[in-house]
Amino acid sequence: MGLKRVANMHSLSVRLFRSLAVTCLFAFAASTFAATVSGPVVVLPNSYYLQPDKGGQTKLVKHDGTRLLPGTIAAYSVTGQIVTGALGVVPDSSRSFTNDLDFTGAPDTRYFILDTVSGKLQTDLDQAAWKKALDDAGVHSEVHIYPPLPWQN
Q1: Are residues 46 and 30 both part of a single domain?
Q2: Which residues contact 112 (CB under 8 A, 6 or more apart)?
Q3: pTM of the entire structure?
């Protein structure tokens, strides 16, 4: 009688282990598909991405596809774990020279800084506030930002 009980317990634990393993695999697969960014992207540090919007302009998104900035990116640069740039539409003149030319903002250009380690995003900065915030973030060298390349869909 005792041997039969041990055999039943073993059978029960094997079935329980199998169902737990299948459930874990299913949960892992579901989370992997739920957190993927589809389409063309530029990979940034710590699971941030640049991705085209429906109009072909560049947007900044998290790993789950959530948009971080209300507008599009006219120019950007990555320095270590910091992503910085200007908001707006890429000028047509920059499209003809790929992204070899520095971006020159107008007086009303707004800038952003993303610390990809902490997730801290500073946005709607004028040029003076942007340069000071970069210095405060430890980016002491002269930062050059460039327009993104045109998206090839």
Answers
A1: no
A2: 60, 69, 84, 85, 86, 87, 121, 122, 123, 124, 125
A3: 0.71
Q: pLDDT (tens digit, 9 = 90+) per residue, 118-153?
A: 999 999 999 999 999 999 998 877 888 988 887 775
**Number of domains present in the structure of the chain:** 2
Q: Are residues 50 and 29 part of one domain?
A: no
pLDDT-derived band at 108 (thresholds 50, 70, 90) equals very high
The label of the residue with tokens 């697969």 reads 29
Report H helices in 1-153. Answer: 2-34, 92-96, 127-136
For 37, half-sphere exposure in the C-beta direction (CA atoms, 13 angstrom radius) is 21
> Residue 147 falls within a domain, yes or no?
no
Are 132 and 81 in the same domain?
Answer: yes
Same domain for 27 and 84: no
